[in-house]
């Protein structure tokens, strides 16, 4: 059964002293799925993602990512995932091409593969004329699309996106999601956190965390039906109110 899933968790928990950041969470992410991981600041989203990326050891529970154990096979996990954070992670004092070559090398691509991937990526993003421009000179939307494309340049099984569209305009956000759909269609599993509730509608399934616990998990349509809500924002607000009662 696990072969059908890119990510599995069972009772995954992380404590910092007496504080429980992620409290006994259990879920599975199907291969090729776009899985939305939602919650307010402090809900435990980033802690959970860091554990799944092999950057933070859980306090208890179980989890596998791309078939690898989060306790004992973190290096294998890192080789099989891509990651893009809200805080722009490319080097702004390097050119577009230099960034592609640098990260291609980090991901273990050969020189030949990097050369091919660079040409394909520049053409896909219509950045051929900006190949020798410093990344710092690009508009934010272009930076975000470039960052995402580089995060999957090595064809990872899973890509983790932490608030990937923060600060960009609605049109650019929509274009960015076109890239996500394209990656998912090619078989990449997408695990995305976002605070834009309209983006939750684009996901195959959505998990909503409140105070370190998963309070709801289903397709956007099913969640709206369950909570008698017109939008995912309404679902989120209802869960937040319940938590504060």
TrEMBL record:
InterPro entries xrefs? AAA+_ATPase, ABC_transporter-like_ATP-bd, P-loop_NTPase
A GO molecular function term, named singly, is: ATP hydrolysis activity
Q: May I have one GO cellular component term?
A: membrane
Determine if ATP-binding is one of this entry's keywords.
yes
For this UniProt record, give its keywords in alphabetical order, as a comma-separated list.
ATP-binding, Membrane, Nucleotide-binding, Transmembrane, Transmembrane helix, Transport
Q: How does it sit in the membrane?
A: Multi-pass membrane protein
Looking at the record, the residues that make up the ABC transporter domain are 7-236
Where's it found, cell-wise? Membrane
Q: Does the keyword Glycoprotein apply?
A: no
Report the domain of life of the source organism.
Bacteria
Q: Which PROSITE patterns match?
A: ABC_TRANSPORTER_2
User: What is the protein named?
Assistant: ABC-2 type transport system ATP-binding protein
